[in-house]
Amino acid sequence: MTTVVIHNPDWFLNADIIFSAISIFVSLLVAIVAFRAWFVTRKTRYFGLCAAFTALAFAFFTRMIANIYQDPLLFYIGYGLHILATIFAFLTLFILANRISNPRIVLLFYLLVFPLIYYSGSYFMSFYVSTTIITGLLALTYFQNILKSKKRKFSAICVFIAFLMLFLAHLQFLLSKFNHLFYISASVTQLAGFILFLITMIKVLKS
Predict the structure, then answer these.
(1) 1 in a domain, yes or no?
(2) Domain for residue 3, yes or no?
(3) CA quadruple 32, 163, 177, 5: dihedral positive or negative?
(4) Backbone angles phi, psi at 153, to 5 degrees
(5) What angle do CA 107, 113, 115 make, to 5 degrees?
(6) Beta-ladder partners of 17
(7) Which of 60, 85, 101, 165 has the fewest CB atoms within 10 Å, i.e. is most exposed?
(8) What is the C-alpha separation between 193 and 164, in angstroms, rounded?
(9) Residue 41: in which H helix or E strand, if any?
(10) Residue 95 lies in a domain
């Protein structure tokens, strides 16, 4: 069973709730924009983006509720759902970015990661190590796509920067174990990454 330990300063709790609320709003906007793109183009990747960012919105919502009510059982359930939804979202984004279409390989990703996190001894280490690795690989994937492309598209560069910011954010969440200031900078960096992703999605839809 996983133990949930959070390394955020107590005085930052209210701000953390506000950051979660803003992240929910931004994630839902990205999901809506992605759904509209899917409705127009019928491309599977946009539907996947919609599902991923809806899951992220849900993840932030459950964490926000857990932080607001501070009930031990609700706290554990809230963060448990936060873990599952976030990992599902990032894995989905990774699968989309690498164009993995084999359903058995896709299923293998989900079946391997979720039990490892659930049966690990620490939410902090298992979750943030996993998300740091996945977001880092996502940033690398989009960076390689930019290098392979003959045309340096502005949207592709923005997506790379957005995932790079998410990678740096989750790396800072790991470092918050040593200094609580990293938790604050990580929250800001993560929100900035989501906002950049939203701007990019809107630009793509308009084009």
Answers:
(1) no
(2) no
(3) positive
(4) -70, 135
(5) 105
(6) none
(7) 101
(8) 8
(9) helix 13-41
(10) yes
What is the CATH classification number for the domain harbouring 129? 1.20.1070
DSSP symbol at 99: T
Whole-model pTM: value is 0.87
Closest CA to 79 of 174, 181, 87, 180: 87
Beta bridge partners of 3: 122
Residue 45 in domain: yes
Query: Cα–Cα distance between 41 and 196 in angstroms, integer?
Result: 22
Query: Each residue of 120-170: pLDDT tens digit?
Result: 556 667 788 889 999 999 999 999 988 887 666 788 889 999 999 999 999
In total, how many domains does the chain have?
A: 1
**Residue matched to tokens 């031990």:** 72
Residue written as token pair 């970015």 = 97
Question: Could you tell me which residues come within 8 angstroms of residue 37 by beta carbon, excluding any fewer than 6 positions away?
Answer: 43, 46, 49, 201, 204, 205
